[in-house]
């Protein structure tokens, strides 16, 4: 079942998304384009297409093939970073009982 966020995201995809998706998968030879900190490419079989820069830029140069694991990991990280930080509750520190 699709969450509201995913269905809203799907509504923002261009009408030719299926064609773009296939072009990216073919261009990337159905291999995951994710790279680790040393710059080594994952290369696992990829069946998902991801926006390199999060947002609604659907140009081919902003799309990459990713394996399921890397796509889930990247999407999770983007979701966490997009949350607004919670306001810290602050209160005056209590005086030490010995100083009362």
In short:
This is HNH endonuclease signature motif containing protein. Helices cover 34% and strands 8% of the residues.
Explain what this protein looks like in three dimensions.
Helices cover 34% and strands 8% of the residues. With 100 residues, it is mostly helical. The mean pLDDT is 85. The chain has one domain (4-79). The protein contains three helices and two strands; from the N terminus they run ααββα. The chain has helices at residues 4-11, 17-27, 68-82, and strands spanning 48-51, 63-66. Strands 1-2 form a two-stranded antiparallel sheet.
**Could you estimate the helical fraction of the residues in percent?**
25-40%
Rg to the nearest angstrom?
21 Å
Oligomeric state of this protein: single chain
Largest sheet: number of strands, sense, barrel closure: 2 strands, antiparallel
Region (Disordered): 73-100
Biased composition (Basic and acidic residues): 89-100
Protein name: HNH endonuclease signature motif containing protein
GO molecular function: endonuclease activity
Features:
about 100 residues, mainly alpha, elongated
Topology, please?
Elements: H1 4-11, H2 17-27, E1 48-51, E2 63-66, H3 68-82
Antiparallel strand pairs: 1-2
